[in-house]
Design brief:
CATH topology: 7-stranded beta/alpha barrel
Number of strands: 10
Strand content: 15-25%
Largest sheet: 5 strands, mixed
Radius of gyration: 17 Å
Helix content: 25-40%
Order of helices and strands: HEEEHEHEEHEEEEH
CATH class: Alpha Beta
Distance between the termini: 22 Å
CATH architecture: Alpha-Beta Barrel
Number of domains: 1
């Protein structure tokens, strides 16, 4: 598994910097169901579960809030994570961020505690960049590596915020890898730990 570029780079950063990563998954793509991931990767997923976690993103490549069948997509992912004995996250980053109240209640009842939400002042974040709704914590996501022009303490909110949520998309991971690694070093140098 770690011969693949994405997983290999994440493992390298874990070994070098102690980076912990969560990958958010679609249940279904045009030509693939998440349940089709071969079980022969199970041993590697098990060994990495303390630093490599997985969570639900959406059933299809459509906004989560518009999704029909949230339960089916979520449960397909959860069964696959269990089959592969991989690390699971109770923090989700939903596709296009938002969900309706009914979806949020379902996620809460399914063991999800936190949603990562956009860096948008229309949400009523408190001084800790969070708010609570439908029993779920909502954390502001400050860093989108694709939009980050300069990688420095100020643009990374290093030393300014106690908790900093950052992300990128897989399709641009290779392009953003240098920025991500530089950010990881800055956060470590400033005393942050990865969760």
């Amino acid at each position: 598994m770690f011969d693949m570029r994405l997983f290999g780079k994440l493992r390298q950063w874990n070994m070098q910097y102690g980076l912990k990563t969560t990958l958010y998954c679609f249940a279904v793509t045009e030509d693939f169901l998440i349940s089709e991931i071969p079980e022969f990767y199970k041993h590697e997923f098990e060994k990495a579960k303390d630093w490599l976690r997985f969570g639900y993103h959406s059933k299809f490549n459509t906004p989560f809030a518009d999704e029909y069948g949230t339960e089916a997509g979520f449960e397909l992912c959860q069964k696959t994570f269990k089959k592969l004995n991989c690390g699971k996250s109770d923090i989700l980053r939903l596709h296009y961020w938002c969900g309706c109240n009914e979806q949020k209640r379902f996620l809460k009842n399914s063991g999800i505690n936190t949603l990562l939400y956009p860096d948008d002042d229309c949400f009523k974040y408190n001084d800790n960049d969070e708010f609570e709704h439908c029993g779920l914590n909502h954390w502001r996501t400050r860093i989108l590596f694709e939009n980050l022009k300069e990688v420095d303490d100020a643009n990374l909110f290093a030393g300014i915020k106690e908790r900093i949520c950052a992300f990128t998309h897989e399709q641009v991971f290779d392009i953003q890898a240098e920025k991500i690694e530089k950010a990881v070093k800055i956060y470590l140098n400033d005393g942050y730990e990865f969760i």
